[in-house]
Amino acid sequence: MKPYVGVLALQGGVSEHINMLNSIDCKTVEVRRPEHLNDINALVIPGGESTALIKLLIRWDLVTPIQNLSGTGLPIWGTCAGSILLSHEISEKEHIVNQPSLDLAPVRAERNSFGRQLASFQEDLIIKGLKEPFPGIFIRAPLLHPLSESTEILCSVQEGVVFLRCGNIWLSSFHPELTDDTRIHKMFIEKAILGS
Ligand code: GLN
Predict the structure, then answer these.
(1) What lines the ligand 1 site, CB under 6 Å?
(2) What is the bridge-based pairing of β-strands 134-139 and 120-125?
(3) Is pLDDT of 36 > 80?
(4) Is residue 117 pLDDT above 50, yes or no?
(5) What average pLDDT does range 39-49 have in this prediction?
């Protein structure tokens, strides 16, 4: 059976993840309401604007159902704003900001961390488990500061960590869905869902 993957579809880069997941033979569902979470094998939380996304998650009663599913071991992967939403703590530089989150990974996400507020850039990344470099696209990306030894760092750049995994929770501060390289989506599906 095809892996059945939910993509949070409240705001941000939804269709890019859906298209990439479909291209690697997953069945997908756009998650807008709690009932869309039924029977999924994994959840992807796209980039966008984390301050808007958390308000929408609260408004549509999605926070507790997602936290409960995580507690059952459901693999969840957040890209960019999605990684901020999954973090325990959010900061701007070192200053902790009072922004609610799903709080599913022992990480401090330092928002808008790379360069100036609007800075976007591409950098070849060396990623654990991939033989060749991966084209990392960063758009006002966070840095990920692990707060626990239990996190597995999958990629760092000069400034700090940009890809990590903590049990069933995966965080990347860059955007694999904006490339035509499916290797990270495949890695998530294979390792997180199929356990290979
Ligand atoms: N800077 C955005 C935030 O703080 C994230 C940007 C993105 O997802 N590309 O939520």
Answers:
(1) 47-50, 80-81, 84, 111-112, 139-140
(2) antiparallel
(3) yes
(4) no
(5) 97
CB 40, CB 19: distance < 8 Å: no
Residue reference for tokens 């965080």: 171
Tell me, in angstroms, the distance from the centre of ligand 1 to residue 39's CA. Answer: 29
Structure tokens at 26: 């997953």
In this structure, what are the phi and psi dihedrals at residue 70, rounded to the nearest 5 degrees? Answer: -60, -40
Rounded CA-CA distance 72/37 in Å is 13
Domains in the chain: how many in total?
1
DSSP letter (8 states) at residue 166: E
pLDDT for 119-169, tens place per residue? 788 899 999 999 999 999 999 999 999 999 999 999 999 999 999 999 999
- The residue written with tokens 């408004």 in the block is 59
Asked if residue 74 has pLDDT above 60, the reply is yes
Per the DSSP assignment, residues forming a β-bridge with 76 are 43, 169
Q: What is the pTM of this model?
A: 0.96
Instruction: Choose the residue to mutate in 17, 54, 84, 116 for probing ligand 1, maximizing ligand atoms within 8 Å of C-beta.
Output: 84
- DSSP classification of residue 39: T
What is the extent of the structural domain holding 14? 4-193
Alpha-carbon span 87 to 44, nearest angstrom: 14
The CATH number linked to 66 is: 3.40.50.880
Quote the longest CA-to-CA distance of the chain. 46
